[in-house]
Design brief:
83 residues; 3 helices; mainly alpha; elongated
C-alpha cells in the first residue's frame, strides 16, 4: 500500500496527462491489497480449519491480482516517463 501512496503522490506532483488511468488502477490495487490483508487476518484468526484454508486460497488469488496491478502500473509509469 506504500507503493500506491508513492505512485499517487508522484503523479500529483508531476502532473502527467495519463494520470487518471494510473490513479484509477492504483486505487483498485489498493482495494485488492486491503482485501488481501483482511482475508489473511481472517485465515489466521479463524478457529475452523476448512474455513482457514478457504481464506488462504482467497488471499492467494487476490494477492496475485494485486501483483499484476503493480506490474501494470509500474509499466505504465515507466512508459509515460520514456515517452
Amino acid at each position: 500500500m506504500g507503493f500506491c501512496l508513492v505512485v499517487l503522490t508522484s503523479l500529483k506532483i508531476s502532473k502527467y496527462s495519463t494520470t487518471s488511468i494510473i490513479d484509477e488502477l492504483t486505487g483498485v490495487e489498493t482495494v485488492f491489497l486491503i482485501a488481501s490483508a483482511i482475508f489473511s487476518f481472517l485465515s489466521i484468526r479463524t478457529i475452523k480449519e476448512n474455513l482457514s484454508v478457504r481464506y488462504e486460497k482467497i488471499v492467494e488469488n487476490i494477492f496475485i491480482v494485486a501483483l499484476i496491478f503493480v506490474f501494470l502500473i509500474t509499466f505504465m509509469v515507466g512508459v509515460s516517463l520514456i515517452f
